[in-house]
Amino acid sequence: MANILPRDRQIAVIAALTEGVSIRATERLTDTHRDTVMRLGLRVGQGCVRLHDTLMRNLHVGLLEFDEIWSYVGKKQKRLKPTDPADLGDQYVFTALSATHKAIISYLVGKRNWTNTVEFAQDVRDRIVNRPQISSDGFPACADAIERAFGADVDYGQIIKVFDGEPGPNAARRYSPGWVVNVRKTSVAGRPHRSEISTSYVERSNLTIRMQARRFTRLTNGFSKKLGNHEAAVALFVAHYNLCRWHETLRSTPAMALGVTDHIWTIGELIDAAEAADGPELGAPAPVAPLAPMSPAVPQRPQFAVIQGGRA
Asked: Max CA-CA distance within the chain?
């Protein structure tokens, strides 16, 4: 059923959701019923899945960082019962971040297991056309997944942090890792540059996810109750992050740095493109033409460094 919300109200709702506002707070701020907020967020998020799949193709990315961020649906893993459906419990978000462009190239929501890791690595392979250098932590499934997806056409290194002590039971330490006492970098495949084996940027992007997506905020009741809603929320975050969010270091959006778009998208453009991508005509992926920018693009400073990136 078509959404009959006025366009300015739709923009206000999606803008609130992409800034980490909860469903009920969005209801109060925009004077829109929470059920309508959820339906709009779900539909736009599902469209963002297809939009990302269309835009993030044929990319040149030199440095990639892999990581997974923990979340859960319905209840935490330790609270699950044998009769609970598989959708509940821990649901990790696998992300592949371009270290140069700060863009999320690929993502996947699911259990942290070998099957999903292989699917995630293959999706990354399908989106880029060059031989990348990939860095990840020591998650055992990563090495096999990257080998299956890339074969010999990859330079892959792992960075393994050794911690001293586990998080304590008190509130001040419960969500803090132990102290890092050692960091080991190992070459797993190809000839990765040792100085560039790092997961710092993708770990920093995990903080952005927790800040910008309310469903990831700890110690609240804002967690997802359904897996489909969770996946849509992640897709909405990724699309907004890549296309709409100004990056202070890049002085552009990540999508502009990649050469995928030539201007900062507005929330209205994102909604229109997502709903166009969600139409029944989406049989085969085709480029989605964004609307003309509502304001002139911000002038870019001269660049004096040559970096890898952009479309093929």
From this structure: 60
- Strand residues in the chain grouped as ranges (E): 59-60, 63-69, 72-73, 89-90, 92-98, 104-110, 133-136, 155-164, 179-189, 310-311
For 206-236, b/e burial (b = at least 16 CB within 10 A) is bebbbebbbbbeeeeebbbeebebbbbbbbb
Backbone angles phi, psi at 290, to 5 degrees: -70, 160
Tokens 């911000």 correspond to what residue?
298
| Tens of pLDDT, residues 217-258 | 888 888 999 999 999 999 999 999 999 999 988 899 999 999
Distance CA 27, CA 38 (A): 10
Backbone dihedral angles phi then psi of residue 81, each to the nearest 5 degrees: -105, 160
Q: For tokens 């821990």, what's the residue?
A: 90
- Give 214-226 pLDDT, tens digit per residue: 999 888 888 999 9
Q: For residue 38, what are the CA distances in angstroms to 24, 35, 73, 228, 229?
A: 10, 5, 16, 11, 8
Kindly report the number of other CB atoms within 10 A of residue 82's CB atom: 4
Coil, strand or helix: which one is 16?
helix
**Can you give the pTM of this predicted structure?**
0.83
Domains and CATH numbers, the chain: 7-277 (3.30.420.10)
User: Is-contact 258 127, C-beta < 8 A?
Assistant: no
Token pair of 112, please?
A: 């942290």
